[in-house]
Amino acid sequence: MLIDVRTEDEFNAGHLDNAVNIPVQIIVKAVIPIPKDSGIELYCRSGSRARMAQMILNHRGYTNVSLLNGTGAIE
């Protein structure tokens, strides 16, 4: 699953094909209904929010979380 962790406005302005928008602010506050062994790839503009989301998901027991292109950045 490809997850764009940017804001809804950023996502609506343009996103990668097949990406789902789950802003990092939602990941911080809510339980994400995705199986913990699912393959998850995260990205944002610079990679910083993607790295934060990765740390949160790993802490919650998600075992297969990576950053798009190894950095999580699309720019």
Structure description:
With 75 residues, this protein is α/β, with parallel strands linked by helices. The protein has helices at residues 8-13, 24-29, 48-59, and strands spanning 2-4, 19-21, 40-43, 65-67. It has a single domain (2-70), classed as Oxidized Rhodanese, domain 1, CATH 3.40.250. It has three helices and four strands. The two termini are 20 Å apart. The model has no long low-confidence stretch (mean pLDDT 96).
Question: Which key phrases capture this entry?
Answer:
4 strands, Oxidized Rhodanese, domain 1, four-stranded parallel β-sheet, single chain, 3 helices, 75 residues, 17% strand, alpha/beta
For the record, the count of structural domains works out to 1
CATH topology: Oxidized Rhodanese, domain 1
Profile the largest sheet.
Answer: 4 strands, parallel
**Helix amount, in percent?**
25-40%
Q: Which term fits the overall shape?
A: globular
Q: Kindly state the number of beta strands.
A: 4
CATH superfamily: Rhodanese-like domain
Task: Assess the beta-strand content as a share of residues.
Answer: 15-25%
CATH class: Alpha Beta
The helix-strand sequence is EHEHEHE
**Strand pairing plus helix content: what structural class?**
alpha/beta
Low-confidence stretches: none
CATH architecture: 3-Layer(aba) Sandwich
Strand order of the largest sheet: 2-1-3-4
Number of helices: 3
Mean pLDDT: 96
The CA-CA distance between the termini, in Å, is: 20 Å
Radius of gyration: 11 Å
